[in-house]
Amino acid sequence: MVALLMAAPLVAGCASPAWDDADYGSKAGATAEAAASSVALVRLAVENEARLTRPYLQTLLTETATELGGVDSQFGAVQPPSQAAVAVRAEITGLTSEAAERVRALLNEVRLREIRDPGKAAADLAALGDRLRAFAGEQPS
Residue 112 CB: number of other CB atoms within 10 A? Predict the structure, then answer.
């Protein structure tokens, strides 16, 4: 279990131009998958917080929050090729920003003492991960 938590979350590759809506959607889908992986890792850590040291949990949450911010920034650098892509951009950046905010909030709880309600936090993260995966599934591959 702990070995699984030590794996670093995956992040999307370097930003590159989007040539059309399909390419843009594909990049948005990859961004959502990367964010969903990070959210799943945090959910797993929250569910097992009693088995993890506080410094380790703080490190994991800090690195994941940073990576989620990087995923958001990388995708934000890709210019939408059409007005339809602008809507896609708004949706994925909203989801990735929400993910980063939730992880930062959990980090604050851990720094102050412990996660107040790990069960609720894990359920909220699972729901967010489901939304990210659903978004990714709606995009061209």
Answer: 9
